[in-house]
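INFO worker-7 received task bundle
INFO bundle size: 2
INFO processing item 0
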Amino acid sequence: MLPRAKKLFAIPLLAAAVVAVGSAAPAQAGSAQVAQTMLLETFPTPSTTGVPVGTTLTVLPPDGYDTNGVPYYVVGAGETIDSKRFTGNLIISGNGAVIKNSEIYRTISNGDDHYTFSVTDSTLGAPDGNGCNGDVAIQFDNYTALRVRVRNFSDAFRATTPGGASNISIKDSFAKLCSNSGDHSDGYQGYHGGTNVLIQHNTIDQRSAAPDVTAPIFNSDDSNGISVKNNLLMGGSFTIRLDGDGTQSVAQDNRVVNNSWVWGPVSNAGPSGGSNCPWITWSGNTLVTIDSSYNITSTVGPLNCV
């Protein structure tokens, strides 16, 4: 299994940060209907993701234990893990593995073999009270995550495919992140990420429980462009950080919770220090406020990449 990649970057000083700050002015005249439509939008929550209510879980026995005494289970080609609870790591060892309706406490990873797998209607991370797992919930590529709930992980989703296609689809999922001292917590991180990554209609909460942060959406380190559409995002040093590598990203119809960030809603400092906004197809992104149940309560105004 690949070791967790280190994230080597510096959090910029506020005075030196290049920030695309969305206007906090009221919506322009004629946009009242659009604002009302946004208020009616719904996004994933803990109650609409993860193991479905009423599912009976049985314990999955481990295949072995690593050098730290952590249990692991090797998921073979075409194998289905359904309605299970497992307190260790799942290692994907063949194409077509399926994890559904299950509770997995530690990382699901396909290592460096790039096997395909899917995770659906499952809860990832140990229950509250067991600390913050500084690893990644799902990695590295060729996976689908649908209605997944991530809890008590520092990082939720990772893409690492140097020189190839990552083939990742993350939809209708919810992640509430944590962090340990020295972590660079991320909702999604592209670390030498490949092409064909879609992050659509998810809620990623990286506010007070994760003080050591990068971003809910962090695509950097020579990663290819990704598509980020219709997500509810909050927290981070910057909430959206799409560092361009010369390939086009898409940021469309995302809702960023106003004033939830440390430095700003958008970092547009590219890898050479310049703006990467020319490498982002940017449209329909807005600043919003929400209630404690992740319902949008108001539209503050447009969020621009400048």
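INFO item 0 finished
INFO processing item 1
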Amino acid sequence: VKSKRDSVGADKAIIVSNKGFTSTASTKARAYNIDIFSLAEALRNDWSHAFAHFQGFFIHSYGSALTVFIVDDGLRILNLHESVGKKVSEKQGAAYVGLNADGSEKLTLGQLVKPLFDEQKIKELIDSDTEKRHQIRVEFNVPDAESLFFLNETGEVTPLKKYIVVGQVWRQVTVCKPKVTQYKNEETGEIVAEIVGSDQPNFGFELIAEYPKRQDCERRVFLRKKKTG
């Protein structure tokens, strides 16, 4: 367990045994800073004390300040229709720029930029210095099979064959502190479930620990998307 904790970089390791632990195992667990519980202790333990060792969530994501230019084969910039420019100003990456042949919406600006972060060279560049904003310029050719179009400045649906992404990319590390909520049986005071979320209002996930009613049942721990509303 110590080796696994160290190899994955975990902040805390806990072992539960339905038969308890020998004195040798208890001594070694203390030396390795591993918490040990019998099954009965684990089931009645207030796990918020265990989660106190949980320092929080570290979210690694890519940040960017990018501009997309639609160009022809000679790399001359092709202007979008003013209505598209207005949508981009209002919705940013959520604005639809790529169209189907009939003019219906197909790809947003964000979806056009997404292949950039799949490029191994870009990932290596960002990871080489996570404190720096890296200048990039990448050309993308749209395969004929994609059949991608855009609305040009005169309002015509025009084939989109090539575009260039220019700007800055970097990696963001956000630290979210844990926030523990417990749900208890009103009659017995026993913990029914515990939710570990974050103090950040926009943090979208929760770690759930469900407490079984019988000792012969397994405790379920899982990650879920946070419910809203």
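INFO item 1 finished
INFO post-check item 1: The longest helix spans residues 82-91.
INFO post-check item 1: The two ends are 40 Å apart (CA to CA).
INFO worker-7 idle
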